[in-house]
Amino acid sequence: MASPFLDLSGDPILLEQVLGSGSSAVVVLRDGLAVKTLLRYFWSSDVQVDMNVEVIQREQDVYCRFQLSNPQCDGIVKCLGFSKEATQLTYMANGDLRTYLATNRPPQRLQLSWFHEMARALEYIHDQRVLVADIASRNFLLDSDMTVKFCDFSEASLLPLDVDMDTVDDNGYTTRIALGFPGAVNYEVVTGEKCEIDLFEDNLPTDGRATWPRREFLPSTEDVWLGSIIEDCWIDGGFRNARSLLRALDSVALHPPSPESLNEQPLLMKSSGFIQKLVDDR
């Protein structure tokens, strides 16, 4: 059965080949690879197609920045090559995180490993002077071993290599905002409830600057596992950067199960130095 999408030759893409689509690209499975190609419908205008080509190429520039780094980060879906209108990526067998969470409740040990992987990847991304503007559970993919990886840089900003990431402001986008989104993803993983963030909800129609929502518009983290870490992703005076977030996660340890509770979910505790580490790392 054909989908509404056209391939680079103008032929319909088979529906069973489509892995996903967004505002500017469609991802198809070809020869064991995930190929991200420009979004084109039967009714798309030449202007729309050209705009989508620009988005594809801007994302490829980000991947080129990553490829200059040695070693590359394991927390990012690997780019294997690209042409003007398409990017070849490693195929992630278990799909996107949001779809997985719709039917699965991962154990806390797996959740914690995901949060570490996200924080390490974000630290790497910022070290490469890339500012990601769209971090959501739908933009994380799960590999065959259930590791989680960033997959979408279509709205990312490629910044000068000498920029100070702790103070950069790209039309409102900052590392503080970038840290807020992983907090929302972590909240969704822990609670099973979506936490949508709209950076423009409170802005005037003519104001294109991104603004983090006021705290009262975000869900409560009281009695939520890792709630204090999620909270410090969201508030002013919280984590300064992804490195401080990662250090806080490193201070979280799983209790080994007691003989009486081998069949129960493991509980989590904070190490005795956890609070002091948060203070020192900000």
TrEMBL record:
The keyword Transferase applies. Residues 13-282 form the Protein kinase domain. One of its GO terms (molecular function) is ATP binding. Keywords: Kinase, Transferase. InterPro entries: Kinase-like_dom_sf, Prot_kinase_dom, RTK, Ser-Thr/Tyr_kinase_cat_dom. GO terms for biological process: cell surface receptor protein tyrosine kinase signaling pathway. One of its GO terms (cellular component) is plasma membrane. Pfam families: PK_Tyr_Ser-Thr. This is Serine/threonine-protein kinase HT1.
